[in-house]
Structures are given as structure tokens and as C-alpha cells.
Design goal:
- It is a single chain.
- The protein contains three helices and four strands.
- By secondary structure, it is an alpha+beta fold.
- A hairpin with a 6-residue loop joins β3 and β4.
- The longest helix has 16 residues.
- 5% of the residues are buried.
Length: 115
């Protein structure tokens, strides 16, 4: 929303719409793991949303619940699924297929332990 359409309430994450007096609460729902369609790799993306309520008391309650859940390390938003095939593929790319992370002797040692 534009600055002309809202006014600050003095509380971080809560603004008031001027035209109808309702409060807009900006919520941070945590990080979501998504697969990038162009590269096919997984990445974390910040997930945010807004809610509109009638009173400042309701707005503070919603914001407080969300912050309490984040403090207790609970995910408040939906997260993407992590498929085991992708995890194995990423692990192999990092530790076995690339030469930039490990020396040849270390790779030989790991391969001999594996066999």
C-alpha cells in the first residue's frame, strides 16, 4: 500500500488504513524451501503475508501469537516438501562429483571405505 493510504501506529508490523480505519498486520511466516524451476535446485525463500482486522487489540494479538511461535522455533507457514532423491543428489554433487571441495586422496579414501 502507498504511504498516503496508511498511517503508522507506532508498533512495528501494524499499520492503519485511512479510508476505513482497519488495521493491517504484516506477518513473517518463516522460510519456505522451494525448488527453483529454472535451475532445479532447492532454495529458501522468506514467506510473508498480511491480515486485516478491525481493532488494534486484535492486531496486537495476531502479531504476538506469530512472534511467540517463531521464538519457540515453530514454523508458522507452509513449507515445501524435501524429497530424499534431491537430498542424495545434492550430497553426491557436493562431496563426490566436484573436485573443488575435497582432495583426490580424500575421495579415494572415502570410496575405499564405501566399497
Amino acid at each position: 500500500m502507498r504511504k498516503e493510504e496508511v498511517r503508522e501506529t507506532g508498533i512495528a508490523g501494524i499499520k492503519q488504513r485511512i479510508k476505513d480505519g482497519k488495521y493491517i498486520v504484516s506477518l513473517d511466516l518463516g522460510r519456505e524451501i522451494i525448488t527453483d524451476p529454472k535451475t532445479g535446485k532447492r532454495k529458501e525463500k522468506q514467506k510473508k503475508t498480511t491480515k486485516v482486522v478491525n481493532t488494534l487489540k486484535e492486531a496486537k494479538a495476531i502479531l504476538g501469537e506469530n512472534n511467540a511461535a517463531k521464538r519457540h522455533k515453530k514454523l508458522t507457514g507452509a513449507t515445501g516438501k524435501v524429497y530424499i532423491e534431491n537430498v542424495i543428489k545434492d550430497y553426491k554433487e557436493k562431496y563426490y562429483d566436484s573436485d573443488k571441495h575435497w582432495s583426490a586422496s580424500y575421495k579415494q579414501q572415502k570410496n575405499s571405505q564405501h566399497t
